[in-house]
Write the structure tokens for this entry.
Amino acid sequence: MPDLRISRSLTVPEAALEESFIAASGPGGQNVNKVATAVQLRLHTARIPGLSERVMANLRALAGRRMNEEGVLLLVSREHRTQDRNREAARARLEALLREASAPPPPVRRPTRPTRGSQERRLAEKGARAGIKRDRGRIRDE
């Protein structure tokens, strides 16, 4: 299989990926008992050249318990009946995870203040609402 291209600056070489096939439960009939269709995809992050600390920290946070102390990420795919479709699903999940980890951080929010006009409108509406509530339920002698 070819290298997995995530972005212009991040490409996962085939040497960093390791696949193994295991028996899967679920749909598949008697084929489940005969063929190992589930895929365990391991990503060795130490083998990815140019993986920045920021991306690695994001990946570690996103992966959670799926990543061990050595930096090996384990993804298991067993939702399909064939090895090929499970392999494609595992690679797609890995690609999505790496894209999310390598996304740039959101811009810093700069606090803003409400305009004078919006403050005056808010206070005028508040006063009108208070007047409505103040006059509610009163019987007046006229």
Q: What stands out?
A: The longest helix spans residues 83-102. Strands lie at 4-5, 11-12, 17-22, 38-44, 72-77.
